[in-house]
Structures are given as C-alpha cells and as structure tokens.
Amino acid sequence: MWNSRRIRKGDRLAAVAGWTDGKVLVADRIVDVLEALLRPGDRVALEGDNQKQADFLSRALARCDPRRVNGLHMLISSVSRPEHLGLFERGIANRLDLAFAGPQSVRIAQMVADGSVEIGAIHTYVELYARMFIDLMPDVALLCAAKADRAGNLYTGPNTEDTPTIVEAAAFHDGVVLVQADEIVADLPRVDIPGDWVDLVVEADRPFALEPLFTRDPRHIGDVEILTAMIALRGVYERHQVTSLNHGIGFDTAAIELILPTYGEQLGLTGKIARHWALNPHPTLIPAIESGWVASVHSFGGEAGMERYTAARPDVFFTGRDGSLRSNRVLCQLAGQYAIDMFIGSSLQIDRDGNSSTVTDGRLSGFGGAPNMGHDPHGRRHASPAWLDLGYGEGAGMRGRKLVVQLAQTFRSGGTPTFVESLDAVEIGTQTGMPLPPVMIYGDDVSHVVTEEGVAYLYKAHSLADRRAALAAVAGVTPVGRDADTGQLARLRADGLIAFPEDLGVEVRSANRSLLAARSIGDLVAWSGGLYDPPARFRDW
C-alpha cells in the first residue's frame, strides 16, 4: 500500500466531522476535536514560534485526557508557554525536539534532569524545519493566523514567521493542518497561505499570544553598553566596512543601533556601513532608519507595536500590497547565513577557545538561529569587501570569510563571569546523555570577540596559543582573563590580534547616555512620528 498516510488522514478528519461546518470547527468542542484527531505517539508540530504562539490550541491540548492522548512527540521551535511543558507533566507528550526555550529554560532543565522530558535534539530553527521534511514529518500541525476565511485561506500578517514552512511540511505529506485564527472573515487583506493546504480552522477565544521579544527600552542602556558599542563600531564595523549584517537580541546591540545616528555620524560612516539588515523590526533601529542609515530590512518575524511603522516604510521593509509586513523565519535565516557579511550576537558563556553556549547550569535555553548565522558558510561564493577583508588561502584555495562576532560584557548580572575555563554545556551534555555538548557557536567560527575591554581579532591568530592569549586579553578579571600574560600584550597589539579603546581612537570618558539617539521608549515614538505603538508594559510616560 502506497497511500497509508492519506488513508489515516482521511480517518482522522472523518472522526471530527461532527464538529465541523465545512473546514470551520466549533470552538467550544476543541478538546473533543483534538482527542479525536490525535493518536498515541503522533508527531505534533505546535507553533511555538520565536514570538507568536498558537496558545488557544496549546491550552486545549493541555486539557486533553492523557488516557486518550499520550506519548506525543512534540516539535516546538520555541518552548515559551507553561502549558508546553505541562504536556509532559501530564503524560500527554514524552519527547521534544526544540530550538529555543528562553522563558522556560530553567523549568525544562529541571524536567530533563528528572526524566519528565526526553529531548530528541536541540536544533537551530532551520535545522528543525528541515527535519520536518525528512525524518520528523508532522502527523498533525497546530498553527495560528491573524485571519482565516471559511475556505481555509489564511492571512498571517506581519507575524508570518514559521507558519508557511510548517504548513507545507504537514500538508504535502498527508498530515492534518489545524489553524487557530483570531478572526474568521469573509474577505482577507491578502492570502498568505492557500486554503487547499489547510484542513481545519477555528476561531480562537482571544488573539494569539505575541511576545515583543526584540524590544529593548533605551532607559536600561548604560555606559558599559555604550562603550562596548563604540568599540565595536570602530574596531569592527568601520574597520571592515560591514554593509550587511544581523544583530542578535540584547542591550549591547541595541546600543549600537542607537549610536549610529550620533557617534556613527561623527565618524562619517553614514552610507558606508550597516545598510542591509536581516533583522526583526527592532524599535531601537527607528532613529537609524529615520536618519537615512538603513536601506533594507528583511525580517524573521514582526514586532508588537511596529505594524504601522513598517507599513509606512515600504522602501525599507518587505511589505505586501495590503501594506503589512511579510516576515519569514526560514528565508531570513538563510539570508543571515549566506547573504550578510556579519553576525554579531552575545552568549551566556564563552570559554578560553571562543566556544560559546546559552546552555548553562540549571538553564537549557536552546540556540534559536544563532548557529545558522553564527558560522562561516563554506557554500558561499559571492564576494564583498567585508568578506574579502578576512580572506585567506591562495590560488584555487583562496576564499573570503564571514565575520562572526561575539559581543559580551566580561561579567553578567549578579557578577557572574561570561568568560569561563570550561562551558557548563560540556558537563550538562554528559549528565543528560547527549552525544555532543550543546555548544551554540564553535570557537573556530568566531572571528572577533568584543568586550568593554577591547577587541580580540581571533581570525588573525596563527596558533591556538595566540587565539587563547588574544581572548584572555579582553576577558577582564574573569577566570579566562586572569590567565592573560601581560608580557604578551605589546606583541598582541603590534600584531593586530587585539585592540584596546585607545588603539581604536575611542575616548572612554565619552561613553555615556548623551550618545544615544533615543533615551526612552517615548523618544522612539517621537522618532517614528507617532507610528510606533509600544506594548503597554514598555510605556514610560
């Protein structure tokens, strides 16, 4: 038999026919629907994106009877909600493949330790979605959209994110696609996913949960973040003439965005660097956009409150004919992997060789997209000045190199050192039986490390000893920094392996909040001409 999956899908849909009107489900019978659709051991893709959550469906799934629904293998890219892990506590699910677990990182670490959750793998986003087309094809996909019509056509709006990819993985291998919609309407603003890919839709009890993950309040950016931003701008962006890039989440990169129109302008860098971005619509990027720094932004997802602003700047953002942003996490991850010259992000721990991880003692955060963008993709073939600036080899072996930059303060909050002799991830990997330590970015991919102490140009190191010495020189008084050989500093500086603020022409005393183009959320609203509508918790006026 060559159509067994199709037959099983037909049986599942027939089992819920009593609660449907065409493709539209009766919302108050959603638990009954899930209990009829699902089979023990099913692979279930639950959205669980980086920001948006199919929370009506996840809440309903958590209410199912474990005697009827159990042993599920959950595919959740971002484990963000309490009920995601409640599924495992109740025995509804027992195996999990994920990419990120920020808000639930402590809880999931505890559950893995006590055996409540069996981890298939901690993936990157692209890796998890790719496996949904190979060996992790979903039997059922539980997704969300802003609007649906009665034929199942979907409008995903600014927060399209991962939905099209997951739908395709399920729909074209005879999985059931069930979508919660904020509204079921007669006419859609645009069709983002065609109805013949969708089996069932249900109107949710409230709009899907949306986390403003990339919003940073400038009030919390201090002098250390500003100094680090100045060092990065002079020692990396200006030096290598970086025009295409990705910024990770954090106050350090937010500080860079906010000093572009001030310090960057003083340096005469407008139009020369930071033109093309793979980036969610960060509110802290608004002053740079309004000042003419930014030519284009392609986004992984949207950002709550930025809808009217992105619609009003179609020359910069990718928008549809209806005016709203079109995001796509997989395509933006691929852009971040191959089409940009620099990834700059941060980590919770970095070891003496430059390996880094967000998996630390008692915390299993996952990686998200950092490993996709935070490596030198050997498949790249197009040249750019920044890529060639890190070039090496000769003849047929000559190639450029992507800038992979780790931006880190030497100590995190509470006085916890960022730079450690050995990553917690090594021990955690051993304790949990992982075949490899959960390293986020491998040290041999890291080209630069920037701290408030200076820049380590690791790509210039010709030996592991030089690499370690350069990293130690900018690691402050952390366990790694205390091993620095002060006698080597002059040689490392002369060889260009490290640069301190004075080497870069950065005045440390100038690093203060006066350099920020916006110092509050209210300032960002003003820069946007009133188009930015920040979530309530970020309103400070």
From TrEMBL:
Coiled coil: none annotated. InterPro entries: MadA, NagB/RpiA_transferase-like. It comes from the Bacteria. SUPFAM superfamilies: NagB/RpiA/CoA transferase-like. This is Malonate decarboxylase subunit alpha. It comes from Nocardia jiangxiensis.
